[in-house]
Amino acid sequence: MIEDRARRRKRVWRVIQIVVSLAIAVGVFAFAIPKVADYSAVGEALGSMTWRELATLFAVMILNIVSYWPQQTAAMPGLTLGQGAVATQTSTSIANTMPGGGVVAVGVTYAMYHSWGFTNSQVALSVLVTGIWNIFMKLGLPVVALALLAVEGRAGGALLIAAVIGVAVLIAAVVMFGLVLWKKDFAQKIGSGLGRAASFLRKLIRKQPVADWGQAAVRFRKQTIQLVSKGWLKLTLSTLISHLALWLVLLLALRHVGVSQAEISTAQVLGVFAFGRLLTALPITPGGVGIAELGYIGGLLLAGQEQANVPTEVFRAQVVAAVLVFRTLTYAFQIPLGGLTYLIWRRKKGWLKAPSPEGEPRVPASS
Questions:
Q1: 216 vs 287: which has the higher pLDDT
Q2: How far is CA 350 from CA 117, 323, 339, 360, in A?
Protein backbone atom coordinates (compact mmCIF):
# COMPACT_ATOMS: atom_id res chain seq x y z
CA MET A 1 0.00 0.00 0.00
CA ILE A 2 2.78 2.38 0.93
CA GLU A 3 4.64 1.45 -2.25
CA ASP A 4 1.51 2.13 -4.34
CA ARG A 5 1.15 5.60 -2.80
CA ALA A 6 4.83 6.28 -3.47
CA ARG A 7 4.45 5.26 -7.11
CA ARG A 8 1.37 7.46 -7.50
CA ARG A 9 3.19 10.43 -5.97
CA LYS A 10 6.09 9.79 -8.33
CA ARG A 11 3.79 9.70 -11.36
CA VAL A 12 2.02 12.90 -10.25
CA TRP A 13 5.35 14.62 -9.70
CA ARG A 14 6.55 13.52 -13.14
CA VAL A 15 3.38 14.90 -14.76
CA ILE A 16 3.89 18.19 -12.91
CA GLN A 17 7.50 18.35 -14.14
CA ILE A 18 6.41 17.77 -17.74
CA VAL A 19 3.67 20.40 -17.57
CA VAL A 20 5.95 22.99 -15.98
CA SER A 21 8.72 22.33 -18.50
CA LEU A 22 6.33 22.65 -21.44
CA ALA A 23 4.81 25.81 -20.00
CA ILE A 24 8.23 27.42 -19.57
CA ALA A 25 9.38 26.43 -23.06
CA VAL A 26 6.17 27.64 -24.74
CA GLY A 27 6.20 30.84 -22.70
CA VAL A 28 9.79 31.64 -23.67
CA PHE A 29 9.66 30.80 -27.38
CA ALA A 30 6.08 31.87 -28.11
CA PHE A 31 5.83 34.99 -25.95
CA ALA A 32 9.09 36.16 -24.35
CA ILE A 33 11.50 35.98 -27.29
CA PRO A 34 9.09 37.61 -29.81
CA LYS A 35 8.90 40.59 -27.47
CA VAL A 36 12.69 40.94 -27.78
CA ALA A 37 12.92 40.45 -31.55
CA ASP A 38 10.55 39.49 -34.32
CA TYR A 39 11.29 36.03 -35.69
CA SER A 40 11.30 37.36 -39.26
CA ALA A 41 14.14 39.73 -38.32
CA VAL A 42 15.91 36.84 -36.61
CA GLY A 43 15.58 34.87 -39.84
CA GLU A 44 17.20 37.71 -41.78
CA ALA A 45 20.12 37.74 -39.35
CA LEU A 46 20.53 33.99 -39.77
CA GLY A 47 20.39 34.37 -43.55
CA SER A 48 23.33 36.73 -43.48
CA MET A 49 25.72 33.92 -42.54
CA THR A 50 27.85 32.47 -45.34
CA TRP A 51 28.43 28.78 -45.95
CA ARG A 52 32.00 29.20 -44.71
CA GLU A 53 30.73 30.67 -41.43
CA LEU A 54 28.22 27.86 -41.05
CA ALA A 55 30.98 25.34 -41.70
CA THR A 56 33.21 26.83 -38.99
CA LEU A 57 30.33 26.76 -36.52
CA PHE A 58 29.68 23.11 -37.34
CA ALA A 59 33.38 22.29 -36.95
CA VAL A 60 33.55 23.92 -33.51
CA MET A 61 30.36 22.09 -32.53
CA ILE A 62 32.06 18.79 -33.44
CA LEU A 63 35.09 19.83 -31.38
CA ASN A 64 32.81 20.52 -28.43
CA ILE A 65 31.13 17.13 -28.74
CA VAL A 66 34.38 15.19 -29.11
CA SER A 67 36.10 17.07 -26.26
CA TYR A 68 33.84 15.42 -23.68
CA TRP A 69 34.93 11.89 -24.58
CA PRO A 70 38.52 12.02 -23.21
CA GLN A 71 37.10 13.23 -19.89
CA GLN A 72 35.20 9.95 -19.60
CA THR A 73 38.25 7.81 -20.42
CA ALA A 74 40.32 9.79 -17.90
CA ALA A 75 37.75 9.13 -15.16
CA MET A 76 37.28 5.46 -16.08
CA PRO A 77 40.54 3.55 -16.69
CA GLY A 78 39.93 0.79 -19.23
CA LEU A 79 37.17 2.66 -21.06
CA THR A 80 37.76 3.06 -24.80
CA LEU A 81 37.18 6.37 -26.58
CA GLY A 82 34.30 4.82 -28.53
CA GLN A 83 32.60 3.66 -25.36
CA GLY A 84 33.14 7.10 -23.82
CA ALA A 85 31.48 8.67 -26.85
CA VAL A 86 28.46 6.34 -26.67
CA ALA A 87 27.98 6.82 -22.93
CA THR A 88 28.40 10.60 -23.08
CA GLN A 89 26.11 11.24 -26.03
CA THR A 90 23.35 8.89 -24.88
CA SER A 91 23.23 10.30 -21.35
CA THR A 92 23.32 13.86 -22.70
CA SER A 93 20.38 13.14 -25.01
CA ILE A 94 18.33 11.70 -22.14
CA ALA A 95 19.15 14.63 -19.86
CA ASN A 96 18.15 17.08 -22.62
CA THR A 97 14.73 15.56 -23.32
CA MET A 98 13.22 14.32 -20.05
CA PRO A 99 12.15 16.24 -16.94
CA GLY A 100 14.46 15.00 -14.24
CA GLY A 101 16.43 13.42 -17.06
CA GLY A 102 19.71 13.80 -15.21
CA VAL A 103 18.72 11.03 -12.79
CA VAL A 104 17.58 8.75 -15.63
CA ALA A 105 20.79 9.52 -17.54
CA VAL A 106 22.89 8.38 -14.58
CA GLY A 107 20.88 5.15 -14.47
CA VAL A 108 21.50 4.52 -18.17
CA THR A 109 25.20 5.31 -17.67
CA TYR A 110 25.35 2.65 -14.96
CA ALA A 111 23.66 0.14 -17.25
CA MET A 112 26.08 0.86 -20.10
CA TYR A 113 29.23 0.67 -18.00
CA HIS A 114 27.97 -2.45 -16.25
CA SER A 115 27.39 -4.13 -19.62
CA TRP A 116 31.01 -3.34 -20.53
CA GLY A 117 32.36 -5.04 -17.42
CA PHE A 118 32.77 -2.14 -15.01
CA THR A 119 31.72 -2.49 -11.38
CA ASN A 120 29.24 -0.28 -9.55
CA SER A 121 32.02 1.32 -7.49
CA GLN A 122 34.00 2.17 -10.64
CA VAL A 123 30.95 3.77 -12.23
CA ALA A 124 30.07 5.71 -9.09
CA LEU A 125 33.62 7.03 -8.83
CA SER A 126 33.63 8.08 -12.51
CA VAL A 127 30.28 9.88 -12.23
CA LEU A 128 31.31 11.67 -9.03
CA VAL A 129 34.75 12.74 -10.26
CA THR A 130 33.55 14.07 -13.63
CA GLY A 131 30.68 15.81 -11.87
CA ILE A 132 33.06 17.47 -9.40
CA TRP A 133 35.42 18.63 -12.15
CA ASN A 134 32.50 20.07 -14.18
CA ILE A 135 31.14 21.88 -11.12
CA PHE A 136 34.56 23.36 -10.38
CA MET A 137 34.76 24.60 -13.97
CA LYS A 138 31.26 26.14 -13.89
CA LEU A 139 32.03 27.94 -10.65
CA GLY A 140 35.46 29.07 -11.80
CA LEU A 141 34.44 30.55 -15.16
CA PRO A 142 32.63 33.61 -13.69
CA VAL A 143 35.78 34.41 -11.73
CA VAL A 144 37.96 34.27 -14.86
CA ALA A 145 35.42 36.32 -16.81
CA LEU A 146 35.28 38.99 -14.11
CA ALA A 147 39.08 39.27 -14.09
CA LEU A 148 39.15 39.75 -17.87
CA LEU A 149 36.34 42.31 -17.74
CA ALA A 150 38.12 44.19 -14.96
CA VAL A 151 41.13 44.51 -17.26
CA GLU A 152 38.81 45.89 -19.98
CA GLY A 153 37.06 48.18 -17.50
CA ARG A 154 33.69 46.54 -18.22
CA ALA A 155 33.02 44.63 -14.99
CA GLY A 156 29.27 44.96 -14.43
CA GLY A 157 27.25 44.50 -11.26
CA ALA A 158 25.36 41.38 -12.36
CA LEU A 159 28.52 39.50 -13.27
CA LEU A 160 30.20 40.71 -10.09
CA ILE A 161 27.43 39.17 -8.00
CA ALA A 162 27.64 35.90 -9.95
CA ALA A 163 31.43 35.86 -9.60
CA VAL A 164 31.31 36.50 -5.85
CA ILE A 165 28.80 33.68 -5.40
CA GLY A 166 30.93 31.47 -7.62
CA VAL A 167 34.08 32.24 -5.63
CA ALA A 168 32.38 31.52 -2.30
CA VAL A 169 30.87 28.23 -3.43
CA LEU A 170 34.03 27.23 -5.27
CA ILE A 171 36.23 27.85 -2.23
CA ALA A 172 33.86 25.91 -0.01
CA ALA A 173 33.70 23.02 -2.49
CA VAL A 174 37.46 22.91 -3.01
CA VAL A 175 38.15 23.04 0.73
CA MET A 176 35.65 20.25 1.42
CA PHE A 177 37.03 18.15 -1.43
CA GLY A 178 40.59 18.79 -0.22
CA LEU A 179 39.75 17.79 3.35
CA VAL A 180 38.13 14.56 2.14
CA LEU A 181 41.31 13.66 0.25
CA TRP A 182 43.68 14.89 2.95
CA LYS A 183 42.78 12.65 5.87
CA LYS A 184 40.63 9.60 6.40
CA ASP A 185 39.07 11.10 9.56
CA PHE A 186 37.97 14.22 7.69
CA ALA A 187 36.47 12.09 4.94
CA GLN A 188 34.45 10.08 7.46
CA LYS A 189 33.23 13.17 9.35
CA ILE A 190 32.25 15.07 6.21
CA GLY A 191 30.54 12.01 4.73
CA SER A 192 28.61 11.38 7.95
CA GLY A 193 27.57 15.03 8.16
CA LEU A 194 26.33 15.07 4.57
CA GLY A 195 24.55 11.78 5.22
CA ARG A 196 22.69 13.22 8.22
CA ALA A 197 21.66 16.26 6.16
CA ALA A 198 20.45 14.03 3.31
CA SER A 199 18.55 11.80 5.74
CA PHE A 200 16.84 14.84 7.27
CA LEU A 201 15.73 16.06 3.84
CA ARG A 202 14.51 12.59 2.89
CA LYS A 203 12.56 12.40 6.13
CA LEU A 204 10.66 15.54 5.12
CA ILE A 205 9.37 13.73 2.04
CA ARG A 206 8.75 10.50 3.98
CA LYS A 207 11.66 8.52 2.58
CA GLN A 208 14.09 6.19 4.32
CA PRO A 209 17.38 7.67 5.58
CA VAL A 210 20.50 7.13 3.53
CA ALA A 211 23.09 4.51 4.41
CA ASP A 212 26.30 5.32 6.25
CA TRP A 213 27.92 7.96 4.04
CA GLY A 214 30.92 8.16 6.37
CA GLN A 215 32.34 4.81 5.31
CA ALA A 216 31.35 5.53 1.71
CA ALA A 217 33.37 8.77 1.87
CA VAL A 218 36.39 6.85 3.15
CA ARG A 219 36.17 4.42 0.24
CA PHE A 220 35.64 7.33 -2.16
CA ARG A 221 38.76 9.03 -0.76
CA LYS A 222 40.97 6.02 -1.37
CA GLN A 223 39.65 5.37 -4.88
CA THR A 224 39.77 9.06 -5.85
CA ILE A 225 43.40 9.44 -4.77
CA GLN A 226 44.33 6.44 -6.92
CA LEU A 227 42.41 7.78 -9.92
CA VAL A 228 43.33 11.47 -9.70
CA SER A 229 47.01 10.85 -9.01
CA LYS A 230 47.30 9.22 -12.45
CA GLY A 231 44.72 11.05 -14.56
CA TRP A 232 44.29 14.53 -13.08
CA LEU A 233 46.01 16.33 -15.98
CA LYS A 234 43.97 14.62 -18.71
CA LEU A 235 40.81 15.05 -16.66
CA THR A 236 41.44 18.75 -16.08
CA LEU A 237 42.50 19.56 -19.65
CA SER A 238 39.58 17.69 -21.22
CA THR A 239 37.12 19.43 -18.89
CA LEU A 240 38.62 22.84 -19.66
CA ILE A 241 38.64 22.26 -23.41
CA SER A 242 35.04 21.02 -23.43
CA HIS A 243 33.78 24.14 -21.65
CA LEU A 244 35.85 26.54 -23.76
CA ALA A 245 34.76 24.82 -26.98
CA LEU A 246 31.14 25.29 -25.92
CA TRP A 247 31.82 29.00 -25.28
CA LEU A 248 33.54 29.28 -28.67
CA VAL A 249 30.35 28.13 -30.43
CA LEU A 250 28.47 31.04 -28.81
CA LEU A 251 31.25 33.50 -29.63
CA LEU A 252 31.43 32.48 -33.29
CA ALA A 253 27.63 32.52 -33.61
CA LEU A 254 27.60 36.14 -32.41
CA ARG A 255 30.40 37.20 -34.74
CA HIS A 256 28.89 35.42 -37.76
CA VAL A 257 25.50 37.11 -37.39
CA GLY A 258 27.19 40.52 -37.23
CA VAL A 259 27.76 41.33 -33.54
CA SER A 260 31.22 42.88 -33.41
CA GLN A 261 33.94 42.94 -30.75
CA ALA A 262 33.19 46.64 -30.17
CA GLU A 263 29.56 45.82 -29.36
CA ILE A 264 30.09 42.76 -27.16
CA SER A 265 33.68 41.93 -26.31
CA THR A 266 35.09 38.41 -26.12
CA ALA A 267 35.39 38.74 -22.33
CA GLN A 268 31.76 39.86 -22.05
CA VAL A 269 30.65 36.84 -24.05
CA LEU A 270 32.61 34.64 -21.65
CA GLY A 271 30.94 36.38 -18.70
CA VAL A 272 27.44 35.86 -20.07
CA PHE A 273 28.31 32.28 -20.98
CA ALA A 274 29.60 31.61 -17.46
CA PHE A 275 26.43 33.02 -15.91
CA GLY A 276 24.30 31.01 -18.34
CA ARG A 277 26.11 27.80 -17.40
CA LEU A 278 25.19 28.41 -13.77
CA LEU A 279 21.54 28.80 -14.82
CA THR A 280 21.53 25.52 -16.74
CA ALA A 281 22.87 23.74 -13.66
CA LEU A 282 19.44 24.21 -12.07
CA PRO A 283 17.28 21.17 -13.01
CA ILE A 284 14.14 23.18 -13.78
CA THR A 285 13.68 22.13 -17.41
CA PRO A 286 15.46 19.42 -19.46
CA GLY A 287 18.80 20.84 -20.53
CA GLY A 288 17.68 24.25 -19.29
CA VAL A 289 15.51 24.68 -22.40
CA GLY A 290 13.78 28.05 -22.37
CA ILE A 291 15.59 29.27 -19.27
CA ALA A 292 19.04 29.06 -20.88
CA GLU A 293 17.93 30.87 -24.04
CA LEU A 294 16.32 33.65 -22.07
CA GLY A 295 19.37 33.96 -19.80
CA TYR A 296 21.85 34.18 -22.68
CA ILE A 297 19.72 36.65 -24.63
CA GLY A 298 19.14 38.89 -21.63
CA GLY A 299 22.79 38.83 -20.61
CA LEU A 300 24.10 39.60 -24.08
CA LEU A 301 21.62 42.44 -24.59
CA LEU A 302 22.65 44.00 -21.28
CA ALA A 303 26.30 43.62 -22.21
CA GLY A 304 26.11 45.28 -25.62
CA GLN A 305 22.96 47.37 -25.89
CA GLU A 306 24.74 50.68 -25.29
CA GLN A 307 27.61 49.88 -27.68
CA ALA A 308 25.45 48.68 -30.58
CA ASN A 309 26.48 50.17 -33.93
CA VAL A 310 23.20 49.21 -35.60
CA PRO A 311 19.56 50.03 -34.86
CA THR A 312 18.26 48.47 -31.64
CA GLU A 313 15.87 46.16 -33.50
CA VAL A 314 18.67 44.82 -35.68
CA PHE A 315 20.99 44.30 -32.71
CA ARG A 316 18.33 42.42 -30.77
CA ALA A 317 17.58 40.21 -33.78
CA GLN A 318 21.29 39.44 -34.16
CA VAL A 319 21.63 38.45 -30.51
CA VAL A 320 18.53 36.24 -30.59
CA ALA A 321 19.71 34.63 -33.83
CA ALA A 322 23.14 33.88 -32.35
CA VAL A 323 21.69 32.34 -29.20
CA LEU A 324 19.23 30.19 -31.16
CA VAL A 325 22.05 28.94 -33.42
CA PHE A 326 24.20 28.23 -30.37
CA ARG A 327 21.46 26.29 -28.60
CA THR A 328 20.50 24.39 -31.76
CA LEU A 329 24.06 23.18 -32.25
CA THR A 330 24.87 22.44 -28.60
CA TYR A 331 21.46 21.31 -27.30
CA ALA A 332 19.01 20.24 -30.01
CA PHE A 333 21.61 18.52 -32.19
CA GLN A 334 22.66 16.35 -29.26
CA ILE A 335 19.24 14.68 -29.03
CA PRO A 336 19.19 12.67 -32.31
CA LEU A 337 22.91 11.98 -31.90
CA GLY A 338 22.16 10.41 -28.52
CA GLY A 339 19.51 8.24 -30.12
CA LEU A 340 22.10 6.96 -32.59
CA THR A 341 24.65 6.17 -29.87
CA TYR A 342 21.98 4.36 -27.87
CA LEU A 343 21.45 2.04 -30.85
CA ILE A 344 25.20 1.51 -31.10
CA TRP A 345 25.26 0.42 -27.45
CA ARG A 346 22.43 -2.06 -28.02
CA ARG A 347 24.03 -3.53 -31.16
CA LYS A 348 27.76 -3.46 -30.33
CA LYS A 349 27.98 -7.00 -28.92
CA GLY A 350 31.77 -7.03 -29.04
CA TRP A 351 31.88 -4.56 -26.12
CA LEU A 352 29.83 -6.74 -23.79
CA LYS A 353 31.74 -8.14 -20.83
CA ALA A 354 30.82 -9.54 -17.45
CA PRO A 355 31.79 -7.21 -14.57
CA SER A 356 35.07 -8.04 -12.82
CA PRO A 357 34.96 -8.63 -9.07
CA GLU A 358 35.16 -5.37 -7.09
CA GLY A 359 38.71 -4.15 -6.79
CA GLU A 360 40.22 -6.28 -9.59
CA PRO A 361 41.72 -4.53 -12.65
CA ARG A 362 39.72 -4.69 -15.84
CA VAL A 363 41.12 -5.53 -19.26
CA PRO A 364 40.07 -2.83 -21.80
CA ALA A 365 37.62 -3.88 -24.49
CA SER A 366 38.65 -3.68 -28.13
CA SER A 367 37.43 -0.60 -29.98
A1: 287
A2: 12, 41, 20, 21
